Amino acid sequence: MAEPGGPPAGWRGLFGSPGRAPALAVLAMLVIVRALDPAVVQSIRLRGFDFLEQLAPRRYQALPVHIVAIDDKSLAQYGQWPWSRARVAQLVDKIAAGKPSVLGVDIIFAEPDRLSPGRLIDSDPEIPAQIAGELAHLPSHETVLADALRKVPTVLAVAATNAPPQARTPSRVTMILETGANPRPFLFAYPGLVHSLPEIEAAERGDGSIDEEADPDGVIRRVPLFVVAEGHLVPNLALEMLRVATGARALGIVSGKEGVQGATLGSNFLPTDRHGRIYPYFTPSYDARYISAADLLNGSYDPARLNGAAVLLGSSALGLSDRDQTPRGLMAGIEIWAQALESMLTGNLLRRPAYLNAVEIAIVLIAGLVVVFALPYENPRMAAAAFLCIVAILFGAALVSFEWSKLLLDGIYPALSSALVFGVMLSENLRVAEAGRRRLAGELQHEREMEARLDGELNAARSIQLGLLPRHFPGPPANREVEVYASIEPARMVGGDLYDFVLLDAEHLSFAIADVSGKGVPAALFMAMTKEVLHTATLRYRNALDRVFNEANDKISAASEELGAGGTNMMFVTVFAGILDLATGMLVYVNAGHDAPFVMRAGAAPASLPIAGGPPLGTVDDFQYSIEQRQLAPGEMVLAYTDGVTEAQDANKALYSGARLECLIAAAPMTTAKGVVDYVRDDVRRFAAGAEQADDITLLAVRWLGPVTSA
Q1: Which 3 state secondary structure label does DSSP give 381?
Q2: SS (H, E, C) 87-154
Q3: In terms of Cα–Cα distance, which of 453, 394, 385 is closest to 418?
Q4: Beta strand 259-265 pairing with 250-256
Q5: So what's the pLDDT on residue 490?
């Protein structure tokens, strides 16, 4: 029987083990969060899918899918874009001569050609009457292009717009058969579409949407298979090309109560997520997919090689094409459509059906209950080993589902949820065990408890510090203008060093190094906040580094006052940040109380970068930081460091010193940025051998290799 006033016997059995009640509460909260699926959970899931694609990549194989690209070579030979429609018609004629199965045009001809004969007469009243009369009898370039497009089955691009639809002659509308529930509430919807001119549209076999929906982090992982625009369903460019190539008269869309399930084309089913988006299985960008428009126009490429192939026509020249980030790197928008078409042709579309949300919620719940009720917490080592087995099963299930059935099953959130529940259970069991040992061992156990808490704090701080720093360093062959490398070695007493870099665009690299005052978890958290503030402000203001530092100073000052509660524990951070113009080598920079970096050049002594600078961020309110600049020569390198380098101590407490660092880098071989960083780091290690590291040791090298010249 239950004791008077005590919990019922059933409840005592359920919550008898230490930690079960809070662990079940945490598990319930995690299940609710997953059911609500906020943006941060979606971001974690999508990054997990990226990892699966990188772990089990699709290998490139030659397929009858080609991209005819108006590239830099084409512009160099035939003039700047836009070309006349007559020139585009010549290119289409060349493609049509190869008899491809379909041509998808990723260009919208929405405005009349300014070089068309009639437009020339209107634009220049001084054209002699005889010549004007002859020009008036010539067909317009739109007519010439339309005649060329009629020679090959063509799908023209359309783009969704939030502007209201324009009054015009209705264009060709693809028949789409709907099965199941109404798909429109789940699809991306727009009022209007941007079309090519009616004369050109008259020659098409179909319209295809080229709208891409980037995820919140800017990565293109999925593209809408259908959108709703101008009151009807519009397939995307790749799907419409596939329909025209196969000669199908209609497409199908299958929907259920939870959303869109996929599309049908004949007997083929193309799976989508609930919003009608497909997940192409990307490979890295390959030049083998591309054919230069110049090679077709000048006859150096045999059009017969296009026989029966699907051909996409678009631009890949820098400045003309959009370059999107995908799970396998940057690529031109036209190639994303090519890879989507390849994935459809080979049955390599990744699958994310709507029911997986319910499956993943169930996995979170079941895995959490196993962690709560099945693990032997009386033996923490066995419990930890069993928990690692659960995590391995979760990740293994995701990987196996991906490799065997192209199913995008999330293993990250269930693993993180299980880890949190396990942490609650383990900490509660350890707390109870610790209390028992404390009663038996007294002060000795108290001391051990404090040491365990300190170790936990240091591990948490190190995880925060290292987990936020970028690990993929720009350099040849992907980035031929610049070479970046950084190294950080956290001390046992964790500080708040950080480095960061990001390509703002194709020609500007932003980089920074910083050192937060203080030690432990507060410093690591302050470092994380500083990195986010600097990163966000740099992306907003770009070259206006004075505004970046002014905004960062305001936010860091506010955060410092809050953390220090206005007392003597207020925190601050020293920062050196620069933006390097990769085309010219001009470096603009701002310094907030940080050690001056060195500028290194082969055959010359290193020199400290001249710095006026200002106080550390968070120390002086409303300080106006000023921008400085330095022209780098090709091959010059900027080496930045934190005071953990110069203040490293040997076993006799002697400092490494700035003088020794300067002498060392004067003799350093100017090989690569990584080589210089490793050279300095190894010397500091040799100097401090046998001594305990008291501060983080951070190095950042940025080497400008010079402007990239055209081939």
Answers
A1: helix
A2: HHHHHHHHHHHCCCCEEEECCCCCCCCCCCHHHHHHHCCCCCHHHHHHHHCCCCHHHHHHHHHCCCCE
A3: 394
A4: antiparallel
A5: 80
DSSP secondary-structure letter at 6? S
Q: Count other Cβ atoms within 10 Å, centred on residue 455.
A: 11
Q: Is the peptide bond before 477 cis (omega within 30 degrees of 0)?
A: yes
The pLDDT assigned to 121 comes to 55
Task: Look at the pTM and tell me if it is higher than 0.70.
Answer: no
d(CA 559, CA 477): 41
- In angstroms, the Cα distances linking 596 to 483, 486, 591, 642, 694 are 20, 17, 8, 10, 21
**C-alpha gyration radius of the chain:** 31
Can you tell me the distance from the alpha carbon of 282 to that of 463, in angstroms, rounded to the nearest whole number? Answer: 31
Residue 648: name the closest of 516, 464, 521, 495 by CA: 495
Interval 452-466: pLDDT, tens: 676 766 676 667 667
As a whole number of angstroms, the distance between CA 128 and CA 131 comes to: 5
Q: What is the 3-state secondary structure (H, E, C) of 578-642?
A: EEEECCCCEEEEEEEECCCCEEEECCEEEEECCCCCECCECCCCCCCCCCEEEECCCCCEEEEEC
DSSP secondary structure string for all residues of 29-89: HHHHHHHH--HHHHHHHHHHHHHHHHHSPPPP---SEEEEEE-HHHHHHH-SSSPPHHHHH
AA letter at 365: L
- Output phi, psi for 515, to 5 deg: -140, 115
Residue pair 48/55 in contact (Cβ under 8 Å)? The answer is no
pLDDT value for 2: 45
**DSSP alpha helices (H): ranges in 250-376?**
293-297, 333-345, 355-373
Task: State both tokens at 127.
Answer: 């054209």
- Contacts of residue 1, Cβ cutoff 8 Å, sequence gap at least 6: 9
SS3 content of the chain, % helix, strand, coil (to 5): 40, 25, 35
Q: Residue 432 is encoded by which pair of tokens?
A: 């109870």
pLDDT (0 to 100) of residue 323: 80
Enumerate residue ranges in the chain where pLDDT < 50.
1-7, 9-13, 565-568, 711
Phi, psi of 226 (to 5 degrees): -135, 150
Q: Which residue type is seen at 125?
A: P
Q: What confidence tens digit (pLDDT) does each residue in 242-292 have?
A: 999 999 999 999 999 989 999 999 999 999 999 999 999 999 988 999 999
Count CB-CB contacts under 10 A for residue 29.
12
Residue 305 sits at the vertex; the CA angle it makes with 300 and 309, to the nearest 5 degrees, is 135
> What tens digit of pLDDT does each residue of 358-395 get?
999 999 999 999 999 999 988 889 999 999 999 999 99
**Burial track 94-131 (b if 16+ CB lie within 10 A, e otherwise):** bbbbbebbbbbbbbbbeeebeebbbebeeeeeeeeeee
Q: What's the pLDDT score for residue 366?
A: 95
Give the pLDDT score at 564. 54
Say what the pLDDT of residue 429 is.
86
How many C-beta atoms lie closer than 10 Å to residue 376's C-beta?
A: 12
State which amino acid sits at residue 21.
A
Cβ of 458: how many Cβ atoms within 10 Å?
19
Q: For residues 210 and 236, is the Cβ–Cβ distance under 8 A?
A: yes
Cis peptide upstream of residue 139 (ω within 30 degrees of 0): no
CA separation for the pair 461, 498 (Å, rounded): 13
